[in-house]
Each structure stands twice: as C-alpha cells, then as structure tokens.
Amino acid sequence: MSEFDPTPPGYIVVEGPVGVGKTSLVKRLAQSFSAHSLLEEAEQNPFLERFYRDGRQAAFPTQLFFLFQRSRQLAELRQKDLFQRTLVADYMLEKDRLFAKINLDEHELDLYEQVYQRLSMEAPVPDLVVYLQAPVDVLLGRIQKRGRYQERTIEADYLQRLSSAYTDFFYHYEKSPLLIVNASEINPIDRESDYQLLLERICEVENGKHYFNPTPLLM
C-alpha cells in the first residue's frame, strides 16, 4: 500500500464491457478496503456459452438467468445488512436492462420488462461508479488471455455494440459520482504503480463526473 490512508466510498460499483477487467479490480479494491465484494458470477449462467455462439437463440434465457441471479443477490445482501459496511461490486442493476436492450427482440424485451417489474427490485444507489473503458481490440485480447471456455466465440461486432451502449448509458448517467477510466493503458492488476494511482483517484472522487486517463509517461 502507498503512504496515504485510503478512505473508500461506502458502496462502489466497477462497470464496463466484457473483458475490461471489472472483477479483477473489484477483488483488489475489496482487499484494500477490507470490504465485502459482490460478484456477477457469470460462469454460473448455463446459457451464456450458447449465447456467445448463437446469440439470437439463447439471448432470452441468458438474460432472464442474469436478472433472477442479480435479484437474488440483492435480496440476500439486504437480509445480511451488508450495505452497512463498505461494498465493492462488479455490476450495477441497470446493466441488466442495458444488455436486454441490445440482445433481445421487441417481443422478448416487452416480456423481460414485465418480469423485471414483477421482481420489484430497488437497487441501492452507488456512492461511486468506476466505469472502465477500452477499445474492442484490447477487450478481445484480454478475453483471449483469460481463456474462459464460454467466452471463446465472442465476436468483435458484439463487443463494439456493447461498448457503444455503455458509452451512451454513462454519457447520460447522473445518479452517482462517476469516474471514467481509460483502461487500455493501465494495468492495475499486474502493475502496482498503476493500481496505486487508480486507488488514490477512487478515494478522491466526491461528486460529479471525473476522468482518469493515464498515459505511459505517468507509469
């Protein structure tokens, strides 16, 4: 750890497209802050591999599985009062609708929205959202490097659509303080100096929208 004493926000969400490094960063932050982590656990979704291989045929069950999974996780957190301590998550509930809008057809989306409303989920508002961005070629490289079986057929076109949807969503996002991170050059998992720079920036943000765009000269 660096010399400064990090004081984290109470509820931090790390978001961004597939392959950008959300979960790895969440685990490091949770360790630094002695915090609880809330992880998406995408590998538990039995439809995900089929979705990446043939999205049209498996999009709806894939989306519903994630919706029920996230609803269950939030309910369990409330029962355990884990929001009373620092919590770091690798997803926000709003992402579920974001994915649904780009993956489902009109009729599927209408049914999805009905299910969503029935669940009556009231997700807590994060104290800070860290949005990780990276070009599609970087995302593809990281996906290939981590070698998850269900992700082996992800295509660049899908990642581009997903990245564009995230960009549009966070362009209009105003519910929480937002730190937008250019994650293409930074490696907070394998490079300690990068992690310390990002950690300090996370602890500095109090309100509004901020950008963290490290360059090789800073590393």
What do you see in this structure?
The chain is an alpha/beta fold and 219 residues long. The protein has one domain: 3-Layer(aba) Sandwich (Rossmann fold). Helices cover 49% and strands 12% of the residues. The protein has eight helices and six strands; from the N terminus they run βαβααβααβααβαβ. It has a six-stranded parallel beta sheet, covered by helices on one side. Helix 8 (192-204) links the parallel strand 5 (178-182) and strand 6 (209-212). The longest helix is centred in the N-terminal third of the chain and has 26 residues, at 55-80. It is globular, with a radius of gyration of 17 Å. The chain starts with 10 loop residues before the first strand and ends in a 7-residue tail after the last strand. Residues 12-202 form the Deoxynucleoside kinase domain. Keywords: ATP-binding, Kinase, Nucleotide-binding, Transferase. ATP binds at residues 16-24, 142-146.
